């Protein structure tokens, strides 16, 4: 059996395989309902599990939750922006937003010290979310290392609903650190349905396909929590009236298995994966326009070896990281994007000029965004009280 490894740095290449092999469903049938969302419209959000639940909550104006987690390991870049845009979008559709700073995972898996993770989570991620439009109302932001008691009880309880063989089948090689990270993520995704956080309601987790193993496992755990009630018994063998408030709330917990959506990853500027650990692969949203332009100028394109050849054969926008930026972020108008595509394919567009155009668009975006970042700084405290 093939596996997806959430901690591997390989980009996922074969999206079709995910439908056949792992049972992710195509997002196509929801596309026409969300013409305002660029990622949906362009098939960048390509798959889902149980999105019908979310769709009907949106349609019927019923409560639902969007939850996501961030690995605080470096600067906030355009790959991360994709998730942030989805947060802002779900918030505009009425979702409560839960955001987890996965500092335990980044410590266990990437050896990032907690202090550094904290700084990055607040001053890179949260600040950028705010600058991109996230509003404080209805947002819960927490650190895996420091949160409410029931959350930890739920993490421990998840371990009782999974076998080791099951985990090995999903993740292959396991380490104790991976096991803890997986259990933490399960609690991240399920805990918004704790009785005192709002109880059972649909939850959507928008992720890259690399996170699907966690989703599959979490959905199983959720069903098992419903099926097998937990008993907490005090030292005298009683279980009524004497167990702690936290245990009681866990015991009474019912939950809707979480839904998920899957997006295709943006390519890095070198053509491979966009990775926080390789600055030449990403564009940060806090990049100075000069650094940004330098990165654009040395980015990999889908152009030909010479201008003559390009005029004759045309470029390959599918393989171009500049086109990738237009597609995901810089060009919202579909007609304009189509024009770029046609001109590139037809050899009318030459990479040098195209990069200059891209640099202009990018500088304009960064200029505007960085003003918003300054303002965002002042309201971080409304999202997270330390
Ligand atoms: N594991 C995720 C990553 O590598 C981060 C994460 C932690 C997360 N908790 C989550 C993602 C809950 C979605 C939902 O980026
Ligand atoms: Fe990419 Fe533009 Fe060159 Fe086409 S013309 S390959 S879109 S940089």
SSE arrangement:
Blueprint: H1 15-22, E1 25-26, H2 28-31, H3 38-41, E2 45-49, H4 51-59, E3 65-70, H5 78-92, E4 96-101, H6 103-110, H7 114-131, E5 139-143, H8 149-159, H9 164-171, H10 176-190, E6 203-208, H11 212-227, H12 245-251, E7 259-263, H13 289-297, H14 307-313, H15 321-330, H16 334-345, H17 351-377, H18 380-383
Parallel strand pairs: 3-4, 3-6, 4-5, 6-7
Antiparallel strand pairs: 1-2, 2-7
The structure holds tryptophan and iron/sulfur cluster.
Instruction: Specify the number of helices.
Output: 18
**Low confidence ranges:** none
Q: Roughly what fraction of the amino acids lie in strands? A: 5-15%
The ligands bound in this entry are:
tryptophan, iron/sulfur cluster
- What does the main sheet amount to? 7 strands, mixed
Determine the N-to-C terminus distance: 45 Å
CATH architecture title of the largest domain: 3-Layer(aba) Sandwich
The assigned structural class equals alpha/beta
CATH homologous superfamily caption of the largest domain: HUPs
């Amino acid at each position: 059996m093939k596996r997806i490894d959430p901690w591997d740095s390989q980009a996922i290449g074969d999206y079709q395989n995910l439908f056949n092999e792992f049972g992710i469903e195509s997002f196509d049938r929801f596309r026409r309902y969300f013409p305002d969302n660029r990622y949906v419209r362009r098939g960048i959000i390509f798959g889902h599990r149980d999105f019908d639940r979310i769709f009907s909550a949106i349609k019927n104006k019923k409560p639902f939750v969007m939850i996501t987690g961030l690995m605080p390991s470096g600067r906030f870049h355009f790959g991360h922006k994709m998730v942030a845009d989805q947060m802002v979008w779900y918030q505009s559709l009425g979702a409560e937003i839960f955001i987890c700073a996965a500092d335990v995972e980044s410590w266990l898996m990437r050896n990032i010290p907690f202090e550094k993770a904290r700084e990055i989570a607040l001053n890179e991620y949260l600040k950028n979310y705010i600058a991109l439009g996230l509003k404080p109302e209805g947002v819960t932001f927490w650190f895996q290392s420091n949160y409410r008691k029931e959350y930890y009880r739920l993490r421990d309880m998840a371990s009782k609903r999974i076998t080791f063989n099951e985990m090995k089948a999903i993740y292959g090689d396991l380490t104790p650190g991976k096991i803890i990270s997986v259990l933490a993520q399960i609690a991240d995704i399920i805990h918004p349905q704790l009785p005192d956080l709002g109880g059972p309601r649909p939850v959507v987790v928008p992720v890259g396909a690399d996170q699907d193993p966690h989703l599959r496992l979490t959905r199983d755990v959720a069903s098992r929590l419903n099926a097998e009630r937990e008993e907490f018994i005090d030292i005298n063998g009683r279980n009524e009236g004497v167990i702690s408030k936290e245990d009681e709330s866990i015991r009474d917990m019912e939950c809707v298995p979480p839904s998920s959506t899957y997006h295709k990853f943006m390519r890095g500027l070198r053509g491979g994966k966009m990775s926080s650990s390789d600055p030449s692969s990403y564009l940060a949203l806090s990049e100075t326009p000069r650094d940004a332009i330098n990165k654009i100028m040395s980015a990999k394109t889908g152009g030909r070896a010479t201008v003559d050849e390009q005029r004759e054969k045309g470029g390959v926008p599918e393989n171009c990281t500049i086109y990738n930026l237009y597609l995901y972020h810089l060009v919202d108008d579909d007609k304009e994007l189509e024009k770029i595509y046609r001109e590139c394919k037809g050899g009318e567009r030459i990479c040098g000029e195209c990069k200059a155009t891209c640099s202009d668009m990018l500088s304009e975006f960064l200029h505007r965004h960085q003003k918003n970042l300054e303002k965002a700084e002042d309201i971080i405290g409304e999202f997270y009280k330390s």
